[in-house]
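Inputs:
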Amino acid sequence: MSHPAVELDGIWKRFPGVIANAGASLTVRPGTVHAVLGGNGAGKTTLMNCLAGVYLPDEGTVRIDGEEVRFSSPADALSAGIGMVHQEFRLVPVFTVAENVVLGAAPSVLDMAEINQKVAALADRFGFEAEPTRPIWQLSMGERQRVEILKALWRDAKVLILDEPTAVLTPQEAVELGSVLRQMVSEGRSVIFISHKLDEVTSFCDEATVLRDGKTVASSVAIADVDAGQLAELMVGSVSVQQVAPRDATPGDVVLAVDNLTVVDSRGITAVDDISLSVHSGEIVGIAGVAGNGQRQLTDTIAGLDVAQAGTVTISGTDVTALTTRHRVDAGLAYVPEDRLGVGLAPKLPITHNAVMRGYRTMRRGPMLSWDRARAYATGLIEKFDVKIGRMEAPMASLSGGNLQRLLLGRELSDDPRVLVASQPTRGLDVAGVAAIQNLLLEQRDAGAGVLMVSEDLDELLALADRIVVMSEGRIAGEFDPKQVSRTEIGEAMMGAQ
Amino acid sequence: MAFAIGLIFALIIGALLLSISGDPVFDTYQRMWDRSFGTADTLSATFNRAVPLALAGLAVSVAATMGLWNIGAEGQILFGATAATLVGRIGADWPGPVLIVAMLLGAAVGGALWSFGPGLARAEIGVSEIITTLMLNEVALRLIRYLQNGAWKDPEGFGFPQVEARPDQAQLGQIWERAHLGVIIALVVIAAFAWFLNRSVWGYELKIAGSSPKTATYAGISMRRKTLGVMLLSGAIAGFAGGIELTGTASRLSENISNGFGFAGIIVAALALMRPSGVALVAVAFSAVQVGGLSIQTLGVSPAVSAILQALILFGAIGAAVLSTYQIRLVDRKVAA
Amino acid sequence: MVLHGLVFAETQSNPLEKETIMKRRLLLILSILLAFTLVAAACGDDDTDAGSGDDSDDADGGSDDAITAAFIYIGEPGDAGWTWAHDQGRQAAEAATGATTLTVENIPETGPDFEQAARDVIAEGADVIFATSFGYMDAMESLAGEFPDVAFEHATGFKSNDTNFGNYFGRIYQARYLTGLVAGEASASGNIGYVAAFPIPEVIRGINAFTLGVRAANPDATVSVNWTSTWFDPAVEGDASQALLDSGADVIAMHQDSTAAGERAEAAGARWVSYNSDMSAFAPEAYLTSAVWDWGPYYTSVIEDVAAGNYSGGASWDGIETGLVGLGSFAADVSDDVKAQIDDLSAQMAAGDFDPFTGPINDQDGNEIIAAGEVPPDFAAEGLSLLGMSVFVEGVIGSAAG
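Outputs:
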């Protein structure tokens, strides 16, 4: 009786303010390509890091070939046969392919001619074309990825983890990758394929495990038994949302207009591709889509954190495309970013510092900041938005996820902005927290603000939004009236089925 | 607490070292203590030496609040002292207090000028300030060498390459024993900066920027301006230290006026855990180690052993201070095959 | 490294703080490196026997019957060179007078360390302080005012008073001239290199005297100067000698404390004239002779003056007549003619009948700077003097401005 190649059971991993894995599990059979699906923040990467020795899980067990292991470093994991190809490649640009492949695992006597030959033979076995003597900097992203895979194979990895491998590939390269993976599993190896692109999953993988909110919601589903729509539903969830009293919107003027916006991300990939949309005062426009389809770049560019390659952003009639974040705030924008602790807050600084981040310019007395006013303001915010804190001097990161978000949202709403862009505002929150945030968004809408809300939770969008825009691969794949649309229709649009 | 444990640990290893080298352990420690804190006279000298150490430490820690490494405090001290010397030459017949204030301001401006290039390069095109500030140290040294052989050569030096002495009236007065007014000035400057960084809008923005560049951009704070601003401030503080040295302990500009204080400032800042408020205390301790370490040579302790002893004491304290922010835990390294 | 089997885990493992943790680690590493450089700075200069202090026994004595003499050095004595020569003198004086001696080494010029060191030795009961580097001068002057009962003796400077502050040096140029005779005879190519320290009168005077000696033996020879701006840096000084050797020099003279020039000359099959102390052991094939110091008699006489209460500061500039300056050993192939000539000139210089700087002497451009039969004064407020010499004589190739 053969053991599973990998068995993760009851994995918990907590970070300050965030629970990344809440009892997640995963079982991978040898000789299969196993998809791990889930939206951003579902806990996929953390779970894989627990397997690859980057993190030590707080709770839970990791078994390799039926034996329990505890990895304290990636090197431990590697020696147990677990290799991981990260989204950002870890190659030395000036080294050759072969030098990178053997780096850290080279024989003690370096005979480069022999190594070149061995690397070429290895590549050949898996159907790669790889010239061992070419330097990395000359290679395309797809070719670099193959070098990463070769690195793992050189170390004879039995389990290869690929974190969103196709994000950097051309469609042709993605097809080639598929055949490489087939060759690997035919040798009895296993591949864990992290993705949120359902079409790839259905074409490359044998089984899938779906994560949501740090938990496993579907385990080892045979791909042959499901269709993409069902997987999408599993990913976005169908848990009942807190009942939010439905209220009719009374849309007014356009307060946010995005015209023909194109954004290229740091990897050179077009993340937002010629998008136009508008938000009127007094309405909530929901952006639906599987995470990683350009939503973050869209909202970051509206807020001024990313740069638009083409197109314009207009807030309350002012073209802000070339203006700084501060001027956009002055024009009436509030932004609740997806990455609360990394962008929206300063986790190590005290609560007061975080509470006044939007309004501190109004609290100055000459060059000095009036800390009396700052504290009074922070206290007011905390009371009004029911934020539970310990001491005001405690670092922001000591707050729970829901309280962090209440403070962040409260801060952004405190000066009645005309436009609110909220990205994943309820993600990771408990039921009460979700309801509180959703109510705040509705109140804001009723007070006349235009709200652009990005969420992966389709039920949430159906309950709150007055219009739903679906994004897929950086484009708008459809616009729907939530009252008249089915989940399946939206799911198909998410899949890019135009 | 960790600091004390680290210190005791270092002293024990130091004792071992001294016994191996055949030096008297107790006498050596006794001497180090006597000559650094033991009497009013030695304590005041310890204070004097702590002034440039504290200011250099402040300069390094101010830059570090934004994650920037000013490795060039040494050069900024040198150029600050050079600028102060220039002011001294212009105002050779001004009254003492006016001249001193002008020279100290000149020193601060000089130090800021010396960090302007690295700050600008870092802010605008992302050039590592570590490398640029370090390189400018050498430039400042060469400049002084040039001046003492050329334009500012002392006409009364019989051809010896030394810069003309600064005006006599530009001497900071003694306040207590050998301690000069610079001790008070440094304390005021450090307190003012600690207060300013904690209380001002600028300081608030600096903290946000130091927390995360993304968060700063999100909050509408210009990273470019903050980077340049904090580098200028850091350079100005270091340059000011050069001015204090010139008017406090030295009589003329020389290549050695910085005396390694700029580099020692990095250690001071590290020991103060990059908190501007901590540098004064750490600088006094650091100064005492240096002064005490110097004094034990007359006991027959060789300079090499003395240097190792000083390094050990610093090591012990740094190790303890920095490592105490980590947890040390035993990890089961078993890996199932 | 030390904590094998342990890992450092961040107290908070929030991935967002990774950057901070990286910085902390960088900080730790940087601090350790800096601490190491402190050690390296002490060990890097010269080999020294740890715990070399032979004076610790009665350091705390403070008793009045014996004189305590303190020596403050810029470097460490090591095996040869400037500080070694002074330390030999200290040992000789200690043996001759029975005085207790204290040493403080590695004290940089200017900067606050010198004052600290001087106060330390005064606290230890020093009656006289010998300080052997130029940059100590300003601090010596102010300390002399503060401690009228301590004698301050400063080598190579020019300040003094008539009570307790004196400066001393020696007419090493006399020995330099004699070594020039040896070099001039030994050079087949007439191309001689000189690895010079800093462009100051002391060094320029030495180069000029050496060149005059070279041209007395070999009228067409030239001396090419390469400045290092160092007193002790074997790497820089070795490179500077190599450059001279590569441009055809077959004899190398030098001013610094290291033996690097000799080692390079030896490797190149050229010859070498050393300075400060007899360095024949370091490059036995290349070594010709050396201009050396013998400070023992001077230190002995000052300590005796201090003990007798006769010390009164002032300037001292002794020459070959007291044995303060002289030549080291000769290589086997130095001709008897030259040795005889050196003996003769030494005697004449000791008697005051000959001075290397006797005119006519031209500068590098051929203009006469010392008229026939004249000798420049030791010291002059204006015009050429020995102590203020800042131009090269004819036959030197290079700039006296450094």
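Remarks. The mean pLDDT of chain A is 86. Chain A touches chain B at residues 56, 64, 67-72, 76, 79-80, 303-305, 324-327, 329, 335, 337, 339, 342-349, 353, 357-358, 360-361, 364, 367-369, 371 (CB under 8 Å).
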